[in-house]
Amino acid sequence: MTVLQLTDVTGGYTRKPVIKELSFTIGEGELVGLIGLNGAGKSTTIKHIIGTLLPQKGEIRLNGVTLSEDLDKYRSSFSYIPETPVLYDELTLREHLELTAMAYGIDEQTLQLRSQSLLKEFRMEKRLNWFPSHFSKGMRQKVMIMCAFLVNPQLYIIDEPFVGLDPLGIQSLLEQMDEKKKDGASILMSTHILSTAEKHCDRIILLHEGRVRAQGTMDDLRGAFGMPNATLDDLYIAMTKEQDHE
Amino acid sequence: MNNLQDVWSKRFNHYMTEVQKYMRFVFTGHLAIVLVFVIGAVGYQYSEWLKVVDATFPAEWIVALAIGFLLALSRPVTLLREPDQVYLLPLESKMTTYFSSALKWTFWSQIGLAIVIYIVAIPLLKAVTELSSGQIWLCVAVIIVLKYLNVHIEFNYRYANRGASLSIDRMARGVLSILTIQSALTEGYSYVIIFIILLFVYNRTLAKKVKIQPIPYEHFVKVEQNRMMGFYRFANYFTDVPHLHGSIRRRGWLNFIYSIVQHNQNGTQSYLVYRTFIRTDDHFYLWVRLTAISGLIALLVNIPIVTWVVAGALSFATTIQLKYALLSSGDFRMDRLYPVHGSQRKNAVRKVLRLFMVIQAIIVMLCSVGQPLFFVTGILIVAVGELTFLMTKDPSREY
């Protein structure tokens, strides 16, 4: 079953589009990596999917609806972990979790159950009453991750998740992602850590200058670039060179 | 060196636009209303007092102390920035042009206040001393010379000592300035000349030290940063200064208020807004300040119509500023993605403001309890608050 479907999406911050005629889908239980150079349009694509930017052309369907058709259903269907943590300076860690639970209609009992295991997993139990100003960059990132996993949505959208996390944090995040996948959730992840992407992603979308350059499994990509046995790093560099020649 | 003159001019223009941008808000803000009232009241009291002031009143000493002390505070405005420590380093020997422009501006921007205070004191001097008009105006010239010397000495002292033990220098200059003005006001002109020569020699000594030292960029940049920070904090009382993030305090004693909010999806924005308002110093202290001013005026001015006008104006000011502060935001916040209705935030802000305007009304009403029709004050505050919220535009729609 298709969870997320982008059809010919064109858009950007101004009239000049950053992403052009983007089309791809993400199925149930799939982990898809969004890979591209700086400025290729990864973050812009994500902003269109979460609805902070609206497409100039084309359509984005999440769980069968567009944002304008059913705002509540669309927004309840995903949770988002931004590249730079966005926290409320005036809320403690506990309150961030409570607020998220309230917003997504999660009852008290479920909140307790889920947050306890998340706090333990990310080793943040002792910081429940802290304000974010006392958190390091990695801890802030962990708060975002916990809030996202607390919601338990159909789709996770994760922008550059590994930057700022310590190795244990990265491990915990990958485990959580794996677990959610097994439960049937889908994940769209943008990253520059290619070895991790190659290892964990079911499919890869290579963005280049706002367009999909190639997409599919690692084997599909090797085929598209005519480079059998290539790693994702090799393919990425090949794409860079392609750009240099233009 | 034309180059550094340009650097100064560019910086100065940028600085002026920045200051003007924020001063607009200061003079259209609620403090302007209060200032008009305060200046009016103080002016009236002063003129009444002048009619009965005793001829033995030590006006010369008081004027000398006030202005002399003020003159000693001559912090240089250099407009230096952090990168200058690197980029202007090769131009070290040519920086004299830059600093002379900086000191000119320092002098002109600070002399005004001293002169204004002196002019305000002229009626007093005329009432209790026998100085002629010429002598009174001669003292203005003395103040100008003193200010010029103070600006240069403070700059040279900071330069030569990298800002260490500035208070000793300030104290010395303060005492000398006070004595000079006092002498000028008591016709001791030979003393005036002696004190000014002393200051002049002091300045020359420091200037010689300056010549053999590298520019203390670190100190001057820090002075400049503190000065701008002070300005932004001040401006932040009137408007939202974007790069100034208000500090957060838990204020645990107000936790009981949060229990009003229902823990379900409809309460999401209320959960957030109550905490944002109570814990953000900028928002909370704005309310405290305006409530205190309104209460004080109700307590001290026993004319009901004045109390009503002030209470109404301050209720308007409180509501509109908090509405803007809580509803407008250019920054991305996670609650923009929440699956809750878009109007929830506005309703939450309205509820928080309603509660705190009722509290303001009760406090001000208690302060005016001796006046006839004191309950009108309370009704007025709540009504103006509600109307302000309804009739003003919704800033969140601008995005």
Automatic annotation (TrEMBL), chain A:
<dbReference type="Pfam" id="PF00005">
    <property type="entry name" value="ABC_tran"/>
</dbReference>
<dbReference type="InterPro" id="IPR051782">
    <property type="entry name" value="ABC_Transporter_VariousFunc"/>
</dbReference>
<dbReference type="InterPro" id="IPR003439">
    <property type="entry name" value="ABC_transporter-like_ATP-bd"/>
</dbReference>
<dbReference type="GO" id="GO:0005524">
    <property type="term" value="F:ATP binding"/>
</dbReference>
<dbReference type="GO" id="GO:0016887">
    <property type="term" value="F:ATP hydrolysis activity"/>
</dbReference>
<feature type="domain" description="ABC transporter">
    <location>
        <begin position="4"/>
        <end position="234"/>
    </location>
</feature>
<dbReference type="InterPro" id="IPR003593">
    <property type="entry name" value="AAA+_ATPase"/>
</dbReference>
<protein>
    <submittedName>
        <fullName>Multidrug ABC transporter ATP-binding protein</fullName>
    </submittedName>
</protein>
<dbReference type="InterPro" id="IPR027417">
    <property type="entry name" value="P-loop_NTPase"/>
</dbReference>
<keyword id="KW-0813">Transport</keyword>
<keyword id="KW-0547">Nucleotide-binding</keyword>
<keyword id="KW-0067">ATP-binding</keyword>
UniProtKB/TrEMBL annotation, chain B:
<feature type="transmembrane region" description="Helical">
    <location>
        <begin position="175"/>
        <end position="202"/>
    </location>
</feature>
<feature type="transmembrane region" description="Helical">
    <location>
        <begin position="55"/>
        <end position="73"/>
    </location>
</feature>
<keyword id="KW-1133">Transmembrane helix</keyword>
<feature type="transmembrane region" description="Helical">
    <location>
        <begin position="105"/>
        <end position="124"/>
    </location>
</feature>
<feature type="transmembrane region" description="Helical">
    <location>
        <begin position="284"/>
        <end position="301"/>
    </location>
</feature>
<feature type="transmembrane region" description="Helical">
    <location>
        <begin position="136"/>
        <end position="155"/>
    </location>
</feature>
<protein>
    <submittedName>
        <fullName>Protein EcsB</fullName>
    </submittedName>
</protein>
<feature type="transmembrane region" description="Helical">
    <location>
        <begin position="22"/>
        <end position="43"/>
    </location>
</feature>
<feature type="transmembrane region" description="Helical">
    <location>
        <begin position="307"/>
        <end position="327"/>
    </location>
</feature>
<dbReference type="Pfam" id="PF05975">
    <property type="entry name" value="EcsB"/>
</dbReference>
<keyword id="KW-0472">Membrane</keyword>
<dbReference type="InterPro" id="IPR010288">
    <property type="entry name" value="EcsB_ABC"/>
</dbReference>
<feature type="transmembrane region" description="Helical">
    <location>
        <begin position="372"/>
        <end position="391"/>
    </location>
</feature>
<keyword id="KW-0812">Transmembrane</keyword>
<dbReference type="GO" id="GO:0016020">
    <property type="term" value="C:membrane"/>
</dbReference>
